[in-house]
Write a structure and sequence with these properties.
The complex is a heterodimer. Chain A has 15 helices and 13 strands. Chain A is of the alpha/beta class. In chain A, strands 3-2-1-4-5-6-7-8 form an 8-stranded mixed β-sheet, sandwiched between helices. A 5-stranded parallel β-sheet of chain A has the order 9-13-12-10-11. By secondary structure, chain B is an alpha+beta fold. In chain B, strand 3 and strand 4 form a beta hairpin. The chains are: A alpha/beta, B alpha+beta. The complex binds zinc ion. The site of zinc ion (ZN) has 8 residues of chain A, from helix 8.
Chain lengths: ~400, ~100
Protein backbone atom coordinates (compact mmCIF):
# COMPACT_ATOMS: atom_id res chain seq x y z
CA UNK A 1 0.00 0.00 0.00
CA UNK A 2 1.81 3.13 1.19
CA UNK A 3 5.20 2.37 -0.23
CA UNK A 4 7.03 5.46 0.97
CA UNK A 5 9.27 4.38 3.79
CA UNK A 6 10.86 7.78 3.62
CA UNK A 7 8.69 9.19 6.39
CA UNK A 8 11.06 9.35 9.33
CA UNK A 9 9.65 9.54 12.84
CA UNK A 10 10.60 12.31 15.24
CA UNK A 11 11.49 11.54 18.85
CA UNK A 12 8.07 12.81 19.91
CA UNK A 13 6.41 10.48 17.42
CA UNK A 14 8.50 7.55 18.58
CA UNK A 15 7.32 8.21 22.12
CA UNK A 16 3.69 8.70 21.04
CA UNK A 17 3.60 5.48 19.03
CA UNK A 18 5.87 3.40 21.26
CA UNK A 19 3.14 0.82 21.98
CA UNK A 20 2.92 0.19 18.24
CA UNK A 21 6.68 0.11 17.85
CA UNK A 22 6.94 -2.55 20.54
CA UNK A 23 4.83 -4.99 18.49
CA UNK A 24 7.39 -7.00 16.50
CA UNK A 25 5.14 -7.44 13.42
CA UNK A 26 4.37 -3.73 13.41
CA UNK A 27 7.51 -1.90 14.48
CA UNK A 28 9.05 1.21 12.92
CA UNK A 29 8.19 0.04 9.43
CA UNK A 30 4.48 -0.26 10.18
CA UNK A 31 4.40 3.12 11.86
CA UNK A 32 6.18 4.79 8.96
CA UNK A 33 3.68 3.25 6.56
CA UNK A 34 0.84 4.66 8.64
CA UNK A 35 2.46 8.09 8.59
CA UNK A 36 2.78 7.97 4.80
CA UNK A 37 -0.77 6.71 4.33
CA UNK A 38 -3.74 8.70 3.04
CA UNK A 39 -7.18 7.46 4.06
CA UNK A 40 -10.47 8.97 2.90
CA UNK A 41 -13.49 8.51 5.15
CA UNK A 42 -16.89 9.12 3.61
CA UNK A 43 -18.99 10.64 6.38
CA UNK A 44 -18.15 11.87 9.88
CA UNK A 45 -21.14 10.13 11.41
CA UNK A 46 -21.69 6.92 13.33
CA UNK A 47 -19.06 4.86 11.53
CA UNK A 48 -16.81 7.77 10.56
CA UNK A 49 -16.45 8.85 14.20
CA UNK A 50 -14.58 5.83 15.57
CA UNK A 51 -12.73 5.40 12.28
CA UNK A 52 -11.44 8.98 12.44
CA UNK A 53 -10.64 8.89 16.16
CA UNK A 54 -8.63 5.67 16.02
CA UNK A 55 -6.89 6.28 12.71
CA UNK A 56 -5.79 9.71 13.96
CA UNK A 57 -4.61 8.25 17.26
CA UNK A 58 -2.80 5.46 15.40
CA UNK A 59 -0.86 7.99 13.36
CA UNK A 60 -2.32 7.76 9.85
CA UNK A 61 -0.58 10.71 8.20
CA UNK A 62 -3.45 12.10 6.14
CA UNK A 63 -7.15 11.65 6.81
CA UNK A 64 -9.64 13.04 4.31
CA UNK A 65 -13.24 13.49 5.45
CA UNK A 66 -16.22 14.06 3.17
CA UNK A 67 -19.21 15.48 5.03
CA UNK A 68 -21.53 18.43 4.49
CA UNK A 69 -23.76 17.89 7.51
CA UNK A 70 -24.16 19.90 10.69
CA UNK A 71 -24.01 18.30 14.16
CA UNK A 72 -27.41 17.90 15.79
CA UNK A 73 -28.56 16.53 19.12
CA UNK A 74 -29.70 13.18 17.70
CA UNK A 75 -26.12 12.53 16.49
CA UNK A 76 -24.53 12.61 19.95
CA UNK A 77 -25.83 9.17 21.00
CA UNK A 78 -23.29 7.51 18.70
CA UNK A 79 -21.22 10.06 16.74
CA UNK A 80 -18.55 10.34 19.39
CA UNK A 81 -16.25 12.55 17.35
CA UNK A 82 -18.67 15.42 18.14
CA UNK A 83 -19.52 16.94 21.53
CA UNK A 84 -22.59 18.65 22.91
CA UNK A 85 -20.89 22.02 22.42
CA UNK A 86 -20.53 21.19 18.70
CA UNK A 87 -24.28 21.06 18.04
CA UNK A 88 -24.96 23.43 15.17
CA UNK A 89 -21.36 23.36 13.86
CA UNK A 90 -20.40 21.74 10.57
CA UNK A 91 -19.35 18.15 11.28
CA UNK A 92 -16.12 18.75 9.39
CA UNK A 93 -15.03 21.55 11.75
CA UNK A 94 -16.00 19.57 14.80
CA UNK A 95 -14.25 16.42 13.55
CA UNK A 96 -11.11 18.33 12.63
CA UNK A 97 -10.88 19.91 16.10
CA UNK A 98 -11.40 16.58 17.84
CA UNK A 99 -8.85 14.74 15.69
CA UNK A 100 -6.24 17.48 16.06
CA UNK A 101 -6.87 17.42 19.80
CA UNK A 102 -5.98 13.73 19.80
CA UNK A 103 -3.09 13.98 17.38
CA UNK A 104 -1.89 17.33 16.00
CA UNK A 105 0.56 15.48 13.72
CA UNK A 106 -2.24 14.25 11.48
CA UNK A 107 -3.19 16.24 8.41
CA UNK A 108 -6.96 16.50 8.06
CA UNK A 109 -8.36 17.34 4.63
CA UNK A 110 -12.03 18.27 4.69
CA UNK A 111 -14.43 18.14 1.77
CA UNK A 112 -17.58 20.01 2.77
CA UNK A 113 -19.71 18.59 0.02
CA UNK A 114 -21.96 15.72 -0.84
CA UNK A 115 -20.01 13.03 -2.68
CA UNK A 116 -21.37 13.06 -6.24
CA UNK A 117 -20.72 11.41 -9.57
CA UNK A 118 -19.14 14.69 -10.65
CA UNK A 119 -16.64 15.07 -7.79
CA UNK A 120 -16.02 11.52 -6.51
CA UNK A 121 -13.12 10.50 -8.75
CA UNK A 122 -11.39 13.82 -8.18
CA UNK A 123 -11.78 13.56 -4.39
CA UNK A 124 -10.62 9.93 -4.28
CA UNK A 125 -7.50 10.64 -6.34
CA UNK A 126 -4.32 10.16 -4.35
CA UNK A 127 -5.86 8.23 -1.45
CA UNK A 128 -4.62 4.76 -0.57
CA UNK A 129 -7.96 3.55 0.67
CA UNK A 130 -11.53 4.61 1.30
CA UNK A 131 -13.54 3.91 4.43
CA UNK A 132 -17.23 3.87 3.59
CA UNK A 133 -19.40 5.25 6.38
CA UNK A 134 -22.37 6.22 4.24
CA UNK A 135 -25.97 5.76 5.30
CA UNK A 136 -27.79 5.53 1.99
CA UNK A 137 -27.78 3.37 -1.11
CA UNK A 138 -26.99 5.97 -3.80
CA UNK A 139 -23.77 6.97 -2.03
CA UNK A 140 -22.96 3.32 -1.19
CA UNK A 141 -23.03 2.40 -4.91
CA UNK A 142 -21.26 5.61 -5.87
CA UNK A 143 -18.42 4.90 -3.41
CA UNK A 144 -18.19 1.32 -4.64
CA UNK A 145 -18.02 2.22 -8.31
CA UNK A 146 -15.61 5.09 -7.71
CA UNK A 147 -13.31 2.75 -5.73
CA UNK A 148 -13.40 0.07 -8.43
CA UNK A 149 -12.79 2.58 -11.23
CA UNK A 150 -9.95 4.21 -9.25
CA UNK A 151 -8.43 0.93 -8.07
CA UNK A 152 -8.74 1.98 -4.42
CA UNK A 153 -9.80 -0.58 -1.77
CA UNK A 154 -13.06 0.13 0.02
CA UNK A 155 -13.33 -0.74 3.69
CA UNK A 156 -17.06 -1.19 4.05
CA UNK A 157 -19.50 -1.50 6.95
CA UNK A 158 -23.18 -0.91 7.50
CA UNK A 159 -25.49 -1.16 10.47
CA UNK A 160 -29.13 -1.72 11.31
CA UNK A 161 -30.53 -1.57 14.82
CA UNK A 162 -28.49 -4.29 16.57
CA UNK A 163 -26.77 -5.80 13.55
CA UNK A 164 -23.79 -4.89 11.42
CA UNK A 165 -21.85 -6.17 8.44
CA UNK A 166 -18.32 -5.41 7.26
CA UNK A 167 -15.96 -6.38 4.47
CA UNK A 168 -12.98 -5.15 2.51
CA UNK A 169 -14.15 -4.59 -1.05
CA UNK A 170 -12.70 -3.55 -4.39
CA UNK A 171 -9.29 -5.08 -3.74
CA UNK A 172 -7.54 -6.19 -6.88
CA UNK A 173 -9.12 -9.57 -7.77
CA UNK A 174 -11.52 -9.24 -4.84
CA UNK A 175 -15.28 -8.71 -4.97
CA UNK A 176 -17.00 -5.34 -4.88
CA UNK A 177 -20.32 -4.32 -3.36
CA UNK A 178 -22.10 -4.91 -6.69
CA UNK A 179 -20.75 -8.46 -6.83
CA UNK A 180 -22.61 -9.01 -3.60
CA UNK A 181 -25.71 -6.91 -4.27
CA UNK A 182 -26.12 -6.14 -7.97
CA UNK A 183 -28.96 -3.71 -7.26
CA UNK A 184 -30.36 -1.71 -4.34
CA UNK A 185 -33.86 -2.34 -3.04
CA UNK A 186 -36.63 -0.21 -4.50
CA UNK A 187 -37.42 2.70 -2.15
CA UNK A 188 -40.74 1.25 -1.03
CA UNK A 189 -39.04 -1.79 0.47
CA UNK A 190 -36.39 0.12 2.38
CA UNK A 191 -37.18 0.06 6.08
CA UNK A 192 -38.91 3.29 7.01
CA UNK A 193 -37.82 5.58 9.80
CA UNK A 194 -40.03 3.70 12.21
CA UNK A 195 -37.45 0.94 11.86
CA UNK A 196 -34.44 3.17 11.42
CA UNK A 197 -33.05 3.22 14.95
CA UNK A 198 -29.62 1.97 15.88
CA UNK A 199 -27.94 0.97 19.13
CA UNK A 200 -25.35 3.68 19.71
CA UNK A 201 -22.46 1.31 20.39
CA UNK A 202 -23.05 -0.62 17.16
CA UNK A 203 -21.43 1.88 14.76
CA UNK A 204 -18.62 2.08 17.31
CA UNK A 205 -17.96 -1.64 17.00
CA UNK A 206 -18.34 -1.79 13.24
CA UNK A 207 -16.32 1.40 12.72
CA UNK A 208 -13.47 -0.09 14.73
CA UNK A 209 -13.57 -3.18 12.56
CA UNK A 210 -13.15 -0.82 9.60
CA UNK A 211 -10.31 1.04 11.33
CA UNK A 212 -8.61 -2.28 12.12
CA UNK A 213 -8.85 -3.41 8.50
CA UNK A 214 -7.56 -0.04 7.30
CA UNK A 215 -4.49 -0.31 9.54
CA UNK A 216 -3.88 -3.91 8.41
CA UNK A 217 -4.14 -2.95 4.73
CA UNK A 218 -1.79 0.00 5.16
CA UNK A 219 0.84 -1.90 7.11
CA UNK A 220 0.40 -5.15 5.20
CA UNK A 221 0.07 -7.24 8.33
CA UNK A 222 -2.46 -10.00 8.94
CA UNK A 223 -5.21 -11.34 6.76
CA UNK A 224 -7.63 -8.80 5.30
CA UNK A 225 -11.40 -9.23 5.62
CA UNK A 226 -11.40 -10.11 1.93
CA UNK A 227 -13.65 -12.51 0.00
CA UNK A 228 -15.83 -12.75 3.08
CA UNK A 229 -18.28 -10.61 4.96
CA UNK A 230 -18.45 -10.40 8.72
CA UNK A 231 -21.93 -10.29 10.24
CA UNK A 232 -22.29 -9.06 13.79
CA UNK A 233 -25.35 -9.52 16.00
CA UNK A 234 -25.08 -7.43 19.14
CA UNK A 235 -28.11 -8.98 20.85
CA UNK A 236 -26.81 -12.53 20.49
CA UNK A 237 -23.20 -11.23 20.72
CA UNK A 238 -22.28 -13.39 17.77
CA UNK A 239 -19.96 -12.90 14.84
CA UNK A 240 -20.52 -14.91 11.67
CA UNK A 241 -18.62 -15.05 8.45
CA UNK A 242 -20.09 -15.57 4.99
CA UNK A 243 -18.22 -16.17 1.76
CA UNK A 244 -18.14 -13.32 -0.68
CA UNK A 245 -17.19 -14.07 -4.26
CA UNK A 246 -16.15 -11.89 -7.13
CA UNK A 247 -18.94 -12.11 -9.68
CA UNK A 248 -17.39 -12.64 -13.14
CA UNK A 249 -20.47 -10.91 -14.57
CA UNK A 250 -20.29 -7.92 -12.21
CA UNK A 251 -21.22 -4.80 -14.23
CA UNK A 252 -18.39 -2.75 -12.73
CA UNK A 253 -15.57 -5.14 -11.73
CA UNK A 254 -16.36 -8.18 -13.90
CA UNK A 255 -14.59 -9.38 -17.02
CA UNK A 256 -16.76 -7.31 -19.35
CA UNK A 257 -17.84 -4.28 -17.34
CA UNK A 258 -20.78 -2.25 -18.63
CA UNK A 259 -20.19 0.56 -16.13
CA UNK A 260 -17.00 2.33 -17.13
CA UNK A 261 -17.77 5.71 -15.62
CA UNK A 262 -19.88 6.99 -12.74
CA UNK A 263 -23.62 7.05 -13.37
CA UNK A 264 -26.64 8.84 -11.85
CA UNK A 265 -26.98 6.98 -8.55
CA UNK A 266 -30.19 8.65 -7.43
CA UNK A 267 -31.82 7.39 -10.59
CA UNK A 268 -30.15 3.97 -10.23
CA UNK A 269 -31.65 3.70 -6.74
CA UNK A 270 -35.01 5.00 -7.90
CA UNK A 271 -35.08 7.81 -5.36
CA UNK A 272 -34.39 11.48 -5.05
CA UNK A 273 -32.72 11.51 -1.66
CA UNK A 274 -33.68 9.86 1.61
CA UNK A 275 -35.73 12.74 2.88
CA UNK A 276 -37.83 13.14 -0.21
CA UNK A 277 -41.30 14.47 0.51
CA UNK A 278 -44.34 12.31 -0.04
CA UNK A 279 -44.63 11.51 -3.75
CA UNK A 280 -47.14 13.64 -5.57
CA UNK A 281 -50.44 12.16 -6.59
CA UNK A 282 -50.22 10.30 -9.85
CA UNK A 283 -51.99 11.69 -12.89
CA UNK A 284 -55.76 11.65 -12.60
CA UNK A 285 -55.60 11.20 -8.83
CA UNK A 286 -56.97 13.91 -6.57
CA UNK A 287 -54.36 15.10 -4.09
CA UNK A 288 -55.05 14.49 -0.41
CA UNK A 289 -55.69 17.78 1.36
CA UNK A 290 -53.19 18.84 3.98
CA UNK A 291 -53.94 20.66 7.20
CA UNK A 292 -51.41 22.65 9.22
CA UNK A 293 -50.77 21.93 12.90
CA UNK A 294 -52.26 25.22 14.12
CA UNK A 295 -55.42 24.79 12.06
CA UNK A 296 -55.79 21.24 13.37
CA UNK A 297 -55.42 22.44 16.98
CA UNK A 298 -58.19 24.94 16.33
CA UNK A 299 -60.51 22.34 14.81
CA UNK A 300 -59.84 20.01 17.72
CA UNK A 301 -61.06 22.72 20.10
CA UNK A 302 -64.17 23.29 17.96
CA UNK A 303 -67.63 21.74 18.04
CA UNK A 304 -66.99 18.99 15.46
CA UNK A 305 -63.39 17.89 15.95
CA UNK A 306 -61.92 15.53 13.36
CA UNK A 307 -60.52 12.12 14.30
CA UNK A 308 -56.72 12.23 14.45
CA UNK A 309 -55.40 8.91 13.17
CA UNK A 310 -51.81 8.35 14.32
CA UNK A 311 -50.17 5.79 12.00
CA UNK A 312 -46.81 5.59 13.80
CA UNK A 313 -45.44 2.59 15.69
CA UNK A 314 -46.21 2.07 19.40
CA UNK A 315 -42.60 2.76 20.44
CA UNK A 316 -42.85 6.15 18.74
CA UNK A 317 -46.18 6.89 20.42
CA UNK A 318 -44.42 6.17 23.73
CA UNK A 319 -42.17 9.17 22.99
CA UNK A 320 -44.90 11.67 22.22
CA UNK A 321 -48.41 11.90 20.82
CA UNK A 322 -51.20 14.33 20.01
CA UNK A 323 -53.91 14.13 22.71
CA UNK A 324 -56.92 12.08 21.66
CA UNK A 325 -55.27 10.55 18.58
CA UNK A 326 -56.24 6.99 17.66
CA UNK A 327 -53.25 4.70 17.01
CA UNK A 328 -53.19 2.27 14.11
CA UNK A 329 -49.66 1.67 12.77
CA UNK A 330 -49.43 2.03 8.99
CA UNK A 331 -48.50 -1.62 8.58
CA UNK A 332 -51.70 -2.76 10.32
CA UNK A 333 -54.05 -0.23 8.76
CA UNK A 334 -55.26 -2.40 5.92
CA UNK A 335 -56.51 -5.19 8.16
CA UNK A 336 -57.91 -2.83 10.81
CA UNK A 337 -60.06 -0.63 8.54
CA UNK A 338 -63.21 -1.96 10.24
CA UNK A 339 -62.20 -0.06 13.37
CA UNK A 340 -62.75 3.22 11.55
CA UNK A 341 -65.99 4.93 10.53
CA UNK A 342 -65.99 5.50 6.76
CA UNK A 343 -68.03 8.66 7.19
CA UNK A 344 -65.72 10.15 9.82
CA UNK A 345 -63.66 13.27 9.27
CA UNK A 346 -60.11 11.87 9.54
CA UNK A 347 -56.77 13.63 9.80
CA UNK A 348 -53.90 11.17 9.32
CA UNK A 349 -50.77 11.93 11.32
CA UNK A 350 -47.26 10.50 11.68
CA UNK A 351 -43.84 11.87 12.60
CA UNK A 352 -43.24 14.18 9.65
CA UNK A 353 -46.18 13.62 7.32
CA UNK A 354 -44.88 11.06 4.84
CA UNK A 355 -46.25 7.83 6.29
CA UNK A 356 -49.58 9.51 7.07
CA UNK A 357 -49.88 10.56 3.42
CA UNK A 358 -49.50 6.90 2.46
CA UNK A 359 -52.13 6.04 5.06
CA UNK A 360 -54.54 8.66 3.71
CA UNK A 361 -54.14 7.31 0.18
CA UNK A 362 -54.74 3.79 1.45
CA UNK A 363 -57.92 4.94 3.21
CA UNK A 364 -59.16 6.75 0.14
CA UNK A 365 -58.62 3.64 -1.96
CA UNK A 366 -60.71 1.79 0.63
CA UNK A 367 -63.61 4.19 0.18
CA UNK A 368 -63.01 6.80 2.87
CA UNK A 369 -63.77 10.29 1.62
CA UNK A 370 -63.24 12.87 4.37
CA UNK A 371 -59.48 12.62 4.56
CA UNK A 372 -56.73 15.08 5.31
CA UNK A 373 -53.06 14.78 6.19
CA UNK A 374 -51.33 16.65 9.02
CA UNK A 375 -48.61 18.59 7.25
CA UNK A 376 -45.26 18.09 8.95
CA UNK A 377 -46.65 15.53 11.39
CA UNK A 378 -46.04 15.66 15.11
CA UNK A 379 -42.82 17.58 14.48
CA UNK A 380 -44.90 20.50 13.19
CA UNK A 381 -47.26 20.07 16.15
CA UNK A 382 -44.27 20.49 18.47
CA UNK A 383 -43.08 23.57 16.56
CA UNK A 384 -46.41 25.33 16.12
CA UNK A 385 -48.80 24.13 18.81
CA UNK A 386 -47.16 22.55 21.83
CA UNK A 387 -43.41 22.91 22.36
CA UNK A 388 -43.73 20.58 25.36
CA UNK A 389 -44.12 17.72 22.85
CA UNK A 390 -40.59 16.35 22.36
CA UNK A 391 -39.10 15.89 18.89
CA UNK A 392 -37.24 12.77 17.87
CA UNK B 1 -37.03 -32.40 6.98
CA UNK B 2 -36.67 -29.01 8.66
CA UNK B 3 -33.78 -26.59 8.44
CA UNK B 4 -33.15 -23.48 10.44
CA UNK B 5 -33.75 -20.19 8.63
CA UNK B 6 -32.16 -17.05 10.07
CA UNK B 7 -34.33 -13.97 9.57
CA UNK B 8 -32.50 -10.62 9.58
CA UNK B 9 -33.81 -7.74 11.69
CA UNK B 10 -35.36 -5.77 8.78
CA UNK B 11 -37.54 -8.74 7.84
CA UNK B 12 -38.61 -9.81 11.33
CA UNK B 13 -41.80 -7.71 11.25
CA UNK B 14 -42.97 -10.22 8.62
CA UNK B 15 -42.21 -13.34 10.68
CA UNK B 16 -43.90 -12.30 13.90
CA UNK B 17 -40.56 -11.01 15.27
CA UNK B 18 -38.95 -14.46 15.08
CA UNK B 19 -35.23 -14.33 14.32
CA UNK B 20 -35.05 -18.04 13.53
CA UNK B 21 -37.77 -20.21 12.04
CA UNK B 22 -37.77 -23.93 11.25
CA UNK B 23 -38.91 -24.69 7.71
CA UNK B 24 -39.34 -27.97 5.83
CA UNK B 25 -37.88 -28.62 2.41
CA UNK B 26 -35.49 -30.82 0.42
CA UNK B 27 -33.73 -27.99 -1.36
CA UNK B 28 -33.28 -24.24 -0.92
CA UNK B 29 -36.14 -23.46 -3.30
CA UNK B 30 -38.59 -25.58 -1.35
CA UNK B 31 -37.49 -24.15 1.96
CA UNK B 32 -37.96 -20.58 0.72
CA UNK B 33 -41.32 -21.42 -0.83
CA UNK B 34 -42.50 -22.98 2.44
CA UNK B 35 -41.14 -20.01 4.35
CA UNK B 36 -43.15 -17.45 2.37
CA UNK B 37 -46.19 -19.74 2.44
CA UNK B 38 -46.03 -19.64 6.24
CA UNK B 39 -45.30 -15.89 6.28
CA UNK B 40 -47.03 -14.44 3.20
CA UNK B 41 -45.86 -10.87 3.86
CA UNK B 42 -42.30 -12.06 3.26
CA UNK B 43 -43.00 -13.02 -0.34
CA UNK B 44 -42.75 -9.56 -1.92
CA UNK B 45 -39.67 -8.86 0.21
CA UNK B 46 -37.83 -11.95 -1.05
CA UNK B 47 -39.21 -12.60 -4.50
CA UNK B 48 -39.78 -10.56 -7.63
CA UNK B 49 -43.21 -10.96 -9.23
CA UNK B 50 -41.60 -13.40 -11.70
CA UNK B 51 -40.53 -15.66 -8.83
CA UNK B 52 -36.81 -14.87 -8.91
CA UNK B 53 -35.07 -13.93 -5.68
CA UNK B 54 -34.69 -10.17 -5.49
CA UNK B 55 -31.28 -8.81 -6.41
CA UNK B 56 -30.83 -7.01 -3.08
CA UNK B 57 -31.46 -10.20 -1.11
CA UNK B 58 -28.73 -12.77 -0.73
CA UNK B 59 -29.42 -16.25 0.57
CA UNK B 60 -26.69 -18.28 2.20
CA UNK B 61 -26.71 -21.98 2.90
CA UNK B 62 -24.36 -22.09 5.87
CA UNK B 63 -21.58 -19.76 4.69
CA UNK B 64 -22.11 -20.25 0.93
CA UNK B 65 -23.99 -17.87 -1.35
CA UNK B 66 -26.61 -20.02 -3.11
CA UNK B 67 -25.97 -18.13 -6.36
CA UNK B 68 -22.77 -20.20 -6.54
CA UNK B 69 -24.11 -23.56 -5.34
CA UNK B 70 -27.06 -24.14 -7.66
CA UNK B 71 -29.52 -21.54 -6.39
CA UNK B 72 -32.94 -23.00 -5.55
CA UNK B 73 -31.86 -26.50 -6.49
CA UNK B 74 -29.17 -26.62 -3.81
CA UNK B 75 -30.05 -29.60 -1.58
CA UNK B 76 -30.33 -28.99 2.17
CA UNK B 77 -29.48 -31.18 5.18
CA UNK B 78 -31.21 -31.05 8.57
CA UNK B 79 -28.07 -29.60 10.15
CA UNK B 80 -27.94 -26.70 7.66
CA UNK B 81 -28.75 -23.08 8.36
CA UNK B 82 -30.22 -20.88 5.68
CA UNK B 83 -29.48 -17.18 6.22
CA UNK B 84 -31.24 -14.32 4.47
CA UNK B 85 -29.03 -11.24 4.12
CA UNK B 86 -30.73 -8.22 2.54
CA UNK B 87 -28.67 -5.14 1.77
CA UNK B 88 -28.75 -2.59 4.57
CA UNK B 89 -28.52 1.14 4.01
CA UNK B 90 -27.47 2.28 7.44
CA UNK B 91 -24.12 3.77 8.26
CA UNK B 92 -24.91 6.55 10.60
CA UNK B 93 -28.27 5.07 11.56
CA UNK B 94 -30.59 5.44 8.64
CA UNK B 95 -31.61 9.04 8.72
CA UNK B 96 -35.31 9.31 9.17
CA UNK B 97 -37.03 9.29 5.86
CA UNK B 98 -40.54 10.07 6.99
ZN1 LIG C 1 -18.02 -6.38 -8.58
Amino acid sequence: MATTLASPLSNEEILRYSRHLLIPEFGMEGQRKLKAARVLTIGAGGLGSPVGLYLAAAGVGTIGIVDFDVVDFTNLQRQVIHSTADVGRPKLDSARDTLHGINPEVEIIGYETRLTSENALEILRGYDLVVDGTDNFPTRYLVNDACVLSGIPNVYASIFRFEGQASVLALRDGPCYRCWYPEPPPPGLVPSCAEGGVLGVLPGLMGLIQATEAIKLITGIGEPLKNRVLLFDALGMRFRELKLRKNPECPVCGANPTIRELIDYQEFCGIRGEEAPAPAATAGEIEILEIGARALAEELRGAAPPLVLDVREPHEVAIASIPGAVLIPLGELEKRLHELDRAADIVAQCRSGVRSMKAARLLRAAGFTRLRNLKGGILAWSDEVDPAVPKY
Amino acid sequence: MAVKVQIPAPLRPFTGSHSTVEVDGRDVGEVLENLVAAHPQLRPQLFQPDGHIRSFVNVYLNDEDIRYTGRGQTPVQPTDTLTIVPSVAGGSAARCCC
